[in-house]
Specification:
Elements lengths: L2 H15 L5 H17 L1 H8 L5 H12 L5 H13 L6 H15 L2 E8 L5 H15 L2 E8 L7 E5 L2 E4 L2 H15 L1
Parallel strand pairs: 1-2
Antiparallel strand pairs: 1-3, 3-4
Helix pairs in contact: 1-6, 2-6, 4-5
Length: 180
C-alpha cells in the first residue's frame, strides 16, 4: 500500500475517533505541528528516515506534542503508528487530516500559486473572488513559484485558472509560430 493511501486511511480513522467538540482544537494543534515540521527540515527528515528507530521517533514526537490541547489524541495516534511501524507517515497524516476535516465540513480545496509572496489583503480578496465564483466554502493553499514570472495559477477541484505571465508568453509564442 502506498504511503499516500495509508496516510489517508490513518487520517480518516483519526477523524472518526475524535469527538465533534474536540475537532477544532485538534485542527489548531495539527496546523501548528505541520508548520513546525515544515520549518524544521531536520525533524521532518528524522521522522521519515528508515535509519532512525521507531522508539527515538516516538520519544521525540511525544516531547513535541507535550502540553498541546489535543495531546491525549495525538499520543494515541503516535502509539498506533509506532506499533504499526508507520511513524514515517506522521507528517503526511497531519496534512491529510486537515484535508479530510475541511472536506467533511463542505470546503473545497484551492491551490493558489503566485510568482511572488502576497499580502493578507490580497489573499482575502482572492478568497472572496473564488467564493463568489464557485459559491462554496473554499480552503486556500498558497505557494510561490518564481518561474511564473508574474500573475498566478489557481487549481480548484479539476479546474485550473492560469493567469500567469509565462502562460501568456507561451500562448503568444505559439500564435507567432502558427503565423509563420
Amino acid at each position: 500500500m502506498s504511503n499516500k493511501i495509508a496516510s489517508k486511511r490513518y487520517s480518516v480513522a483519526l477523524f472518526d475517533t475524535v469527538k465533534n467538540e474536540e475537532l477544532d482544537s485538534l485542527l489548531a494543534d495539527v496546523q501548528s505541528l505541520s508548520e513546525s515540521l515544515k520549518e524544521s527540515q531536520e525533524l521532518s527528515s528524522l521522522l521519515k528516515s528508515p535509519l532512525t528507530k521507531n522508539e527515538i521517533k516516538s520519544n521525540i514526537l511525544l516531547k513535541v506534542i507535550s502540553g498541546l490541547t489535543s495531546e491525549k489524541i495525538l499520543v494515541g495516534l503516535i502509539n498506533t503508528l509506532k506499533k504499526n511501524k508507520r511513524l514515517n507517515l506522521f507528517e503526511n497524516i497531519l496534512n491529510e487530516f486537515q484535508d479530510v476535516l475541511f472536506e467533511k465540513r463542505g470546503y473545497q480545496k484551492a491551490k493558489v500559486t503566485t510568482a511572488h509572496g502576497i499580502d493578507e489583503q490580497t489573499k482575502s480578496n482572492i478568497q472572496e473572488l473564488l467564493h463568489n465564483q464557485f459559491g462554496s466554502k473554499i480552503k486556500l493553499e498558497f505557494q510561490v513559484n518564481k518561474s511564473l514570472l508574474g500573475g498566478m495559477t489557481v487549481v480548484i477541484g479539476s479546474k485550473m485558472i492560469d493567469l500567469s505571465i509565462i502562460n501568456q508568453v507561451s500562448k503568444f509564442t505559439n500564435n507567432v509560430k502558427g503565423d509563420i
